[in-house]
Structures are given as C-alpha cells and as structure tokens.
Amino acid sequence: MTADITISQHALERMRQRGFSLADVYLALDRGIELYAQNSLYYFLGRRHLADLGNLRESLEGLTLVFDPKSLTLLTCFRNRRFLKKIRHKK
After folding, report:
1. How far apart are CA 20 and CA 70, in angstroms?
2. Helix axes 9-18, 22-31, angle to 10 degrees
C-alpha cells in the first residue's frame, strides 16, 4: 500500500508541526496495526512494533495515521499512546 498513498496538505502541515518525517509515516505503514473504524482507516504504531528500534521507540510510540479508505489519502497524523484502547472501546 505504501506506493499508492497520497498525502493531504493538512497532513503535511501536521507532520511538520508534530515532528514526524515521511520515513516515520512509512514505518507506521510497514509495522503498524491497520484498523478500520468510524469510516476511516487507521495505522497505529505501538510499543511492540518498535521493540527493536531503541531510541526511536520513545518518539514514535503511539504514532497514528488517519486515512480516507476510498482514496488512500493521509488526512492527518498524531501521537497518542492510548489511542488503540480508545478506538476499540468506542460505540
């Protein structure tokens, strides 16, 4: 899927503001959990996915990417270590 994505202007701005690089996004796509909820596609990078990365683990744990599932456009990204638990228990 990594070759087919587009990144919205909003997502680029949020990446700059929050200190995420394009490499971080591709890492999340490669190693993260894929979830479909609330009409969006999410990729979440948890502690287990970053166990072998050492220093990057602290800065990337909880990285969440939000995609439009139809166009595969990255809408935004943020960091929330508890997001997976939150999204799974939402009604």
Report:
1. 24
2. 100
Selection from 47, 51, 48 nearest residue 79 by Cα: 47
In angstroms, the CA 86 to CA 59 distance is: 20
Q: How confident is the model at residue 83 (pLDDT cuts 50, 70, 90)?
A: confident
| Domains in the chain, number | 1
Nearest of 58, 78, 80 to residue 66 by alpha carbon: 78
Q: What is the pTM of this model?
A: 0.85
Instruction: Read off the amino acid at residue 10.
Output: H
> Above pLDDT 70, what percent of the chain?
89
Distances (CA, A) of 48 to 52, 55, 57, 77, 80: 9, 14, 9, 19, 15
Q: Which residues constitute the domain of residue 24? A: 2-88
